[in-house]
Design brief:
CATH class of chain B: Alpha Beta
Number of helices of chain A: 16
Largest interface: A-B, 52 and 38 residues
Largest sheet of chain A: 5 strands, mixed
Number of strands of chain B: 7
Strand content of chain A: 5-15%
CATH architecture of chain B: 3-Layer(aba) Sandwich
Radius of gyration of chain A: 23 Å
Structural class of chain B: alpha/beta
Distance between the termini of chain B: 51 Å
Radius of gyration of chain B: 17 Å
Order of helices and strands of chain A: HEEHEHHHEHEHHHHHHHEEHEHEEHE
Number of domains of chain B: 1
Shape of chain A: globular
Number of strands of chain A: 11
Helix content of chain A: 40-55%
Oligomer: heterodimer
CATH topology of the largest domain in chain A: Rossmann fold
Chain lengths: 358, 219
């Protein structure tokens, strides 16, 4: 059993693009009572394991909602973590009899997918969005379920960068290894070392690589490589061309690892669709890059006449785009350049004051 | 801590759903649907489809003359279903609803339907959800009404299991990578069906035992 869990953690860590589900339902932490908080999360194996780390010293309930084994943010954006998931776990878990209150604490990043009115109508439960990161939950509980601005924002620390880097690159690298194994067997060891080495370097140093956007960072790295090739070619240091070939392999690997260097971060919009659209690839099968590149360029529009200044958008924006101006009692779309169009605010705005202008 | 690319790919996954299902089920998904329509759906039947996806089965039922209510929890799947229903001129015969299976108690009255059909859905539901859906299905079926569940199952003999998993595991990986569609095998459904009050009147397995059709009757 233990071995199976280690294997699952390994799979979840290195093959992040594949779903890995755990049984939904209620989990009990500590000795909860009638007024203990009820948290909700997605049923991705790693999500539940990591969340458990931070809940194990709390007295609370955790509802693991069926989201097809996909993590919170991805599932919420891809229609896998919706009101239906929440309704299902509330109705089938007998949480109604366990607590006296009726407030669910959802992960903040589930906001793009969840229709809280539908949850209320079907189950009678209110939804509240908790912190983005599980590690902030103990502090959030200690403060009486109040969020600070720090808890509302996505961050991009070193550990997360490495985690995301290996999580999304391994699948691609293994595909490349299979191809190399067939056609360029002699280079297998080099590709393995270079491949994972570059993942660590590129993601580890991500904020320090010059260039504002991901593709500029990649361009910078490629230019470095070209300089390297030239440096090693002209003085004819290595007659066997071994080093030149290593540089060429690195060039290809950098492109593949960094194919969507913006989209891999929680900080910037993916430029993937936009670039493909620009170079004329409008669609591949059913995936339409052309129409999606418009969404990349779209912006959130705030209609002041409909806004009730409830503060919901401020509460759930992971990028801190909105600001409440106290003296005018006005909500402002103050830092639109930070927006990653996750549409959390659009789907949670009660009055429809926020829309996405394509 | 999500990859934005992954989010984007998932968003457009419904458009690749039909392709994915056909790939992973070797066309069995579609074959079973044809069988359901041919053998169990009659003209003037009131049919409910649980989890209609892109609407293929609902359309076949309606073409045979049945009135269909079909629901799914994915708005993107339903958008595709709606387009297909319009293309087939079946708007009057098919009513599409966006709802989850766990919301059936408020949506439908007792003794409303002659047939309840559901393909590749029960395997996606967890044990508690299956129990809920089956008890609701029993409530809303008319007396003598039939529930027809077709799904992927685990082969019973061990050599068939080995043959099956050796084809299926690599195929499932490829199918998921290209279409973000996956299915899993249904464990025991006859037990929960019987517990809900249904009498199992037919069970048929096909394709090295890996697909099965269960027909239950409300007594």
């Amino acid at each position: 059993m233990k071995f199976k869990e280690i294997l699952r953690t390994f799979f979840g860590t290195f093959f992040r693009l594949m779903p890995l589900s755990v049984e939904p339902g209620v989990r009990i932490f500590g000795n909860p009572h009638k007024n203990s908080p009820v948290f909700v999360t997605a049923n991705f194996d790693l999500t539940v394991k990591r969340l458990t780390q931070y809940l194990k010293n709390q007295d609370c309930y955790l509802l693991v909602a069926p989201t097809n084994g996909i993590n919170v943010w991805c599932a919420a954006r891809g229609s896998n973590f919706t009101a239906h998931s929440v309704i299902s776990v509330v109705k089938t878990s007998s949480i109604n009899e366990k607590v006296a209150h009726r407030t669910l604490i959802l992960p903040q990043l589930s906001a793009p997918g969840i229709d809280v009115k539908l949850v209320k109508r079907e189950t009678g439960w209110d939804c509240k969005f908790g912190p983005v990161y599980a590690q902030d939950i103990p502090e959030y509980v200690a403060d009486g379920l109040e969020k600070t601005d720090k808890m509302r924002r996505v961050r991009w620390p070193f550990t997360d960068r490495i985690d995301v880097g290996i999580g999304i690159s391994t699948t691609f690298l293994i595909f490349i290894l299979i191809i190399i194994g067939f056609f360029l067997k002699d280079w297998l060891a080099e590709v393995i070392v270079l491949g994972w080495g570059l993942v660590f370097l590129m993601y580890g140093l991500h904020p320090f690589i010059p260039g504002k956007s991901g593709w500029r960072k990649i361009l910078f790295l490629e230019i470095l490589i070209v300089i390297g090739v030239i440096y090693f070619t002209f003085p004819a240091i290595d007659q066997t061309k071994y080093i030149q070939n290593l540089f060429l392999i690195a060039m290809g690997l950098i492109l593949i690892i960094g194919i969507d260097f913006d989209g891999a971060t929680p900080l910037q919009k993916s430029q993937f669709d936009l670039i493909l659209d620009k170079i004329g690839i409008q669609k591949l099968g059913n995936i339409k890059f052309g129409s999606r590149s418009k969404i990349v360029n779209s912006e959130i529009v705030l209609d002041q006449s409909k806004c009730t200044k409830c503060g919901m958008c401020y509460d759930i924006c992971p990028k801190g785009v909105f600001e409440m101006v106290e003296e005018h009692k006005k909500m402002l779309n103050k830092y639109p350049e930070k927006c990653v169009t996750c549409e959390a605010c659009v789907s949670q705005c009660f009055t429809g004051a926020l829309t996405l202008r394509v | 801590m999500a990859s934005y690319v992954f989010m984007k790919i998932l968003e457009s996954a419904p458009q690749r759903y039909d392709m994915g299902i056909n790939l992973i089920s070797f066309g069995q998904g579609r074959r079973m649907q044809q069988e359901i329509v041919e053998e169990y759906v009659h003209k003037s039947n009131q049919v409910l489809e649980i989890g209609c996806g892109t609407g293929t089965l609902a359309i076949s039922c309606a073409k045979k003359g049945a009135s269909v209510v079909a629901f799914d929890k994915s708005s993107q799947m339903l958008a595709i279903a709606e387009r297909k229903v319009r293309e087939h001129n079946l708007i009057e015969k098919i009513q599409l609803e966006e709802m989850g299976a766990i919301e059936m108690e408020k949506a439908f009255n007792d003794n409303t339907f002659d047939r309840i059909v559901s393909t590749l859905v029960f395997s996606e539901l967890y044990a508690d959800e299956q129990k809920y859906v089956l008890s609701q299905a029993y409530r809303i079926l008319r007396p003598n009404g039939l529930i027809i569940i077709a799904d992927e199952v685990k082969p019973r003999s061990s050599w068939k299991r080995i043959v099956h998993s050796s084809i299926r595991i690599p195929l499932a990986l490829i199918t998921y990578l290209f279409t973000q569609t996956s299915t899993k095998a249904l464990e025991d459904i006859k037990g929960p069906m019987t517990n809900a009050g249904f009498k199992i009147i037919r069970e048929r397995r096909s394709f090295i035992d890996s697909f099965a059709l269960f027909v239950g009757q409300k007594e």
